[in-house]
Structure formats: structure tokens, C-alpha cells
Automatic annotation (TrEMBL):
InterPro entries: Spore_III_AB. This is Sporulation stage III protein AB. It holds the Pfam family Spore_III_AB.
Amino acid sequence: MIKIIGCLFIIVSTSCAGYMLGDKLRKRVADLKELQRILISIKNELKYSIEPIELTFKKIARDFKNPYDEILRIAAAKIYNNEITSIDEAISEALAEKEMDLALKDEDKLIFTEFARSLGKWNIGAQEDFFNLSFVKIEEQLNSAEDFCAKNLKMYNVMGPCIGLMLVIVLI
């Protein structure tokens, strides 16, 4: 009886692990799409508004769901309270605080941080070039994440139960 319960526990736990890995792939794709929307929102706000960046971040945060609204609010608060003077450091620290809620890779975070570093340093034309460059980089990451997800999602979902069954067979 204990053997059967142990075997079921192994199969269920490895199945859950496989599904969680697959879910992480899907979440990265969704996070990259959300990051893309944030870039577009920041671009539009800065292009047609003359508000300070912290107010822009707060305004944009209303349009997004957690954890991205929190990232923008944390960055805005750090800039507003003069805890940090550069926008990229504020974004980096906000991303670090919310890292557990994100499925982004370091390259994705680096793109967003580099984008933030460019904010407010050049004229509108150069700024728009940085927006476009960041958008293209995010688009490339999104395409590669979608391809990886399409190729490996089913494998992760099937591999979990298979590994569990293999372990059970070896243990029996």
C-alpha cells in the first residue's frame, strides 16, 4: 500500500514539474508581449506629453496588470523620492524586486534596462531610434520565445509523467 502511494506521489510530482516548466515557457511569451506594450506606451506618452518620467511611469502603470504595474510604480517612486537618479537603475532595482513574478530572461531585462538608460538623454528623433531598436530586440526575443515554446511545450508536458513512470518502474 505504501509502495503504491509512493509511486503515485512520484508520478504526480514529476507531472506537476513538467507542467510548471511548460507554464513558464508560456509565461515568458506573455511577459515579452506585455513588455512590448509597455515600450509602446512609454514611447507614446513621452512623444505627446511633457510630464516628468516618474509621472509618466505612474500613468502608464494604470494600464497594466501585476507585476508590470508594480515595476513601473516602484521605479517611479525611487525616482520621485530621489533614492536613485538614473532611470535605468530604478528599472533594474524594480525588476530585481519583482523577479520572482517574472518569467523574463536576463537578456530581456537587459533590453528594458538599456531602453530606460536612453530615456531623456537625446532629442526626440534619436529617442525614437532607441525606441525602435528596443522594440526590434524585444520582437526578436518574442519570436525566439514563441518558437521555443511551440517546439518544447508539448515535450515538457509529456516528459514529466514519463520521467515519473520511469522512476516508478526503476523503483519497482
